[in-house]
Amino acid sequence: MSKTEFRLALRLVEERLKKIRDKVPPRKFNTKKPAEVEINKFWYDGKTVDRIMVVLRSTGCSHYKTNHGCSMCAHYDGTAESPVSAEDYISQWGSVINGTVLIGDKSQEFDINQFPVLCLYNLGSFLNPDEVPNQAVQEIFASIAQFKGIKKVIIESRAEYVTREVLEQIRQVNPGIIEVGLGLESVNTEVRELCHHKNFPDLDLFHSAVQLLHEYNFRILAYVNQKPPFLTESEAIEDAIATSVFAYQSGVDAVSIEPTSLQANSLTDHLYQMGLYRVPWLWSVIETVRGIHHRIKNADNLDLRLGGYFDEEILSGSQGVASGVPRNELFPHTTSGNCNNCTERVIEAIKEFNRTYDSTILYSQGKCEYCSLVWQEALKVSDSRTIPRRIIDLLS
Ligand code: SF4
Ligand SMILES: [Zn+2]
Asked: Who is most buried in 52, 206, 255, 270, counting CB within 10 A?
């Protein structure tokens, strides 16, 4: 790899990201209310359960703030302009557990103990004290420990914020099952740094985070993005398989494949609007699952998820409301797909897979008379240029 080309490609990606992000309109949110509360079906402890997902209205990802963030992500659009205080986070959590934030009748009958799995997201790193103050982390986890119906909590963080201090603070107040989702995205440095713009050049950091989390008895979920920009369809399948295998071999407990979806103000969406990017085919997502199962020994009990495909029931949310601008600041406008004829049925199969972990549901999907051949042609597309060269050709 030529270092000069790598540096030039990185500069071009960052310049383009800056241009895109600079156009994001001002944001104004109520920081006493979470951005979203929803319920979806999830596989846990050998059965399908109701999972509650709380997205806190938060300070937002530090990587986005300092370096324009990752190419496929625009979560930042759903975050507050100024830092959210510990009191605000605690009051957001309070409004969830007492049901006051929920819409209509739900608030009357709501009991958080009904949900064995709780996802507590902050559109960034829950373990970064600059995003969520320590006091809020500790008080919220102490509160969660009081609800015996909650068996497992899932939070997210970049690996660099996994520190002994923050893990100890959590363990002082909550001994329960806590899973931390770490954004790994790709095992390949060029893909991760240039295509994803992850700003995560050293995988030793990932290994240290895995080790430390296990030391404190946390579970680890690795996020693997399938098909960042600048990769061909078949390269993206191979990259997602290799990354997932690497993640399991590094000791993570679960992997979530995240097929790219399109959020406004992201680099992927920008390229899509110019006809230079297509989201992954669902057939490719199935191929990725097949490849992982093929390469991992005793794959039957793998904790493998396909992110973004759950039937959700929204209990509270600000979808489409931001500073009077009609937009949906959290959800993608396009998810990975096939053709109009088969996308719905394959998505249903993926949801069923997430509810049951039964991969035969995916493998038994029959070919589509309209698009299976088109997809196979897409798999044949190759690009002999290096990744930096592709970026330079496309963005300069
Ligand atoms: S994917 Fe994660 S690390 Fe990247 S910009 Fe989004 S929130 Fe930040
Ligand atoms: Zn089709």
From this structure: 255
The ligand placed nearest to the CA atom of residue 373 is 2
* Closest ligand, as measured to the CA of 346: 2
Tell me the pLDDT band of 316, cut-offs 50, 70 and 90. Answer: confident
Distance 274 CA to ligand 2 centre (A): 24
Instruction: With beta carbons less than 8 A apart as the criterion, state whether 12 and 392 touch.
Output: yes
Rounded to 10 degrees, what is the CA torsion of 79, 81, 86, 90?
-40
Say which DSSP state 280 is in: P
**Structural domain count of the chain:** 1
Residues with CB under 6 A from ligand 1: 61, 63-64, 69-70, 73, 75, 124, 158, 183
Query: How many angstroms separate the alpha carbon of residue 75 from the centre of ligand 1?
Result: 7
Q: Give the residue, by CA position, lying nearest to ligand 1 atom 6.
A: 73
Q: Supply the range of the domain harboring residue 197.
A: 3-395
Report the distance separating Cα 149 and Cα 107, nearest Å: 18
Encoding tokens for residue 326? 């009609």
Ligand nearest to the CA of 55: 1
Distance CA 285, CA 353 (A): 12
Res 329: pLDDT: 58
pLDDT digits (tens, 9 = 90+) for 21-30: 999 888 888 8
Q: Report the CATH number that the domain containing residue 184 is assigned in CATH.
A: 3.20.20.70
Q: What are phi and psi of 334, to 5 degrees?
A: -140, 135
Distance CA 70, CA 20 (A): 12
